[in-house]
Amino acid sequence: MTTIESSPVPHGQTSTNPTRRAATIVGWLFVVTYVTSIAAKIGFYPPLFDGNYVTGPGQDSRVLWGAFFEAVLIVANIGTATAMYTVIKQRHPNLAISFVTARVMESVFIGVGILAVLTLVTLRQDYAAAGEQSAAGLAAVGDAFVALQQWTFNLGPAFVVGVGNGCILGWIMYRSGLVPRRLAILGLIGGPLIIASGSAAVLGLIEPGGAAQNLSATPEFFWELILGIYLIVKGFQTPPSASSEQDAVKDASR
What pTM did the predictor assign? Predict the structure, then answer.
């Protein structure tokens, strides 16, 4: 007969489930990514895209707060990847690495966008009093940095997210049973839609940031939000295979 020995818990202390703790961390970090991404958009729009920001009066404080929220978003993105990796690496090691890589690449694009925005603010502050002769050149430079910021969004949150958070994470959650499969299907639907709309935007088939692209992002939007809330409230489910193995071990120890 096989017996399983468990380490005694010191008197006055309670054992902590590391998987439950990881689920709570991942859930809150997903909520942070949700909040900071919206806050960054509020900071950037419309100041950066309403008229000529570099030679105009500008709203530097608002735009800088938007850049700050995007920096926090990068931290939360990488946090979700590393915390999730500790849970899924045993079941799907290759996909776990792929998810971390996709999350990092998304953060790289966001980081380039932050640099573009900070450069715009610096140009506006340094050359706000420029004469009319140089204003035209500054406006062209400013438009270039605004375009760069827009394209980093189209290649990061509007494309790579579909690969990482949608297809890869959605498939891992669906196969592992760590969350309800009906929830994971949202990711499997949202991921391909974002990839398709992001590809269409890059190829000039649809307007980047237009109604079609925003509509296609709706399933992914709700997938990430509901996943974060679910993990905070419920934590990861015990997959059926894992529960069967646990029952078999208990039966063998009797």
Answer: 0.83
